[in-house]
Specification:
The chain is an all-beta fold. The protein is 0% helix and 47% strand.
Length: 90
């Protein structure tokens, strides 16, 4: 008598590396557009100086929808540069 294997109900969502697809300066704001996966959360961080090694959270709960998502970050007028990074949360 053979054994029966039932339907698989467990699955794993592998992280898909998010990436910025557009960065636009609008006055004192920067609009960041990034790729997302549905039902996943994203962490976006910023740094004004890469040599410091310090990053500040812009958002730690940006919801993905399977399409492009845009968020806005305020930037001081006297700031000459700012760096951003994004990662998918587990």
């Amino acid at each position: 008598m053979g054994s029966q294997i039932g339907a698989w109900t467990n699955y794993v969502i592998l992280p898909v590396l998010p990436r910025f697809t557009a960065i636009a300066v609008r006055g004192t704001n920067v609009a960041l557009t990034l790729t997302t996966v549905s039902n996943q959360l994203y962490l976006v961080e910023r740094s004004d100086d890469l040599t410091s090694g310090s990053w500040t959270t812009v958002t730690n709960s940006l919801p993905g929808n399977g399409a492009l998502v845009t968020l806005t970050n305020a930037v001081p007028l006297d700031l000459s540069k700012r760096f951003y990074r994004v990662r998918q949360l587990p």
